[in-house]
Amino acid sequence: MLYPTPRLTIDAPIVARLLPRISDLTVTLMTAAVGSFPGLDAAPEGHFTDFVMPMVVESVLAAQRSVEAGRDLTDEEIAQTIVPLTEYYTEQRVPLRALISGGFVVIAAALEEAFGSARPEDMADVLALNRFMLDYVGRAMVILFEAHPDIERSVYRIERHARRALCAALVSGAPFAALAVQADMMVPERFDLIALHVAATAVTDPKFANNLSRRRVELVQLELDQIAGTTALHTFDGRAGVALLPFDEQPPDPVHLQRLAVNLTTHLGEPVIMIDYGSVTRDDLPSASTQALEFAQLAAGLGRPAGLYGTDDLLLEYQLVRPGRVRDRLAARIRPLLSQKHLLEALEAHVRHGWDRQRAAEEIHLHPNSLTYRLRRIAEITGLNPLHPHESRMLAAALIIHRLYPASAALDERPA
């Protein structure tokens, strides 16, 4: 017992007054069960009756049998209704928080029905009924919490696999109609496109790499579901991928997307770069997805901190690193510096601090005059003067290319 109170008996007046009203009580509890979950009360009449009503009736009858036997309900008796109801409502996309809240709504409705007819002389029976219900709800919540993760994985596994396959088809331009049916989705004409990239900061033991990737995919899916529910699609494989959110007239809230990047960085244990590419038509998804992933990889390669970025934040760098002979020739301008690390270090500090010689010198522990001397040496060696605005920008561009594509800077510079 939870506390010393009389045990409820079948002939207690409060119970005797309830028994003739069992049918009405089950309808009341069923209405509370359905109405407590947002959106389900708008379903067609009778939509939930065939499944939920028998469960409610069985719960009431099990409670009656246990009272007649002078005992509490067993875990098995509670699970006979709690587990099927959890499965059913999970299939209806009712989240765990709403499921728990709805359970308490039903218990409150049952107590209200019972206590509504109580009289002063029924106080001992009221306490006994209250103890019985508290014992029931406490163990029912434990059963719910233990069962829900497995139920959710089972219910969503096939659908989530179909949604990933659908997303892969959309971003590759492959046929998707059959996959949309499997995913139980109407594919919209436009999507809001997001690219995800995890910047690797640690070496993963190959024995655990697959498990880690699967866990990361699950975490990304759960976080995306918080934003767009089961309409969110993604191709994330544990390291990179795109996410498609059904287009709305209002773009995704940047605050929510930034929070998503923070949450993923926390959960995945490594910096997560997100690119908000904006709205894209279904036909443009293949090319846009490729470009969005390139932006994400670029941000990671440049050492940008974890977080959310727009394409405008990386336009210059993206254009600079487009493949081609011009890119390679520009990177080659700093090739003579690669063997003189002190000069390369001075140039990087100079570029980072944008002409602030004092801060640049402090960073690499030099006197400003010594930094100026090194910058002049760079001008002599490369033919580009870091102290000249235009030539300094060319050197900065060459550094970006070298950082992302070191091989380019090693190419011989030959006349065009």
TrEMBL record:
<dbReference type="InterPro" id="IPR025736">
    <property type="entry name" value="PucR_C-HTH_dom"/>
</dbReference>
<protein>
    <submittedName>
        <fullName>PucR-like helix-turn-helix protein</fullName>
    </submittedName>
</protein>
<dbReference type="InterPro" id="IPR042070">
    <property type="entry name" value="PucR_C-HTH_sf"/>
</dbReference>
<dbReference type="InterPro" id="IPR051448">
    <property type="entry name" value="CdaR-like_regulators"/>
</dbReference>
<dbReference type="Pfam" id="PF13556">
    <property type="entry name" value="HTH_30"/>
</dbReference>
<feature type="domain" description="PucR C-terminal helix-turn-helix">
    <location>
        <begin position="343"/>
        <end position="400"/>
    </location>
</feature>
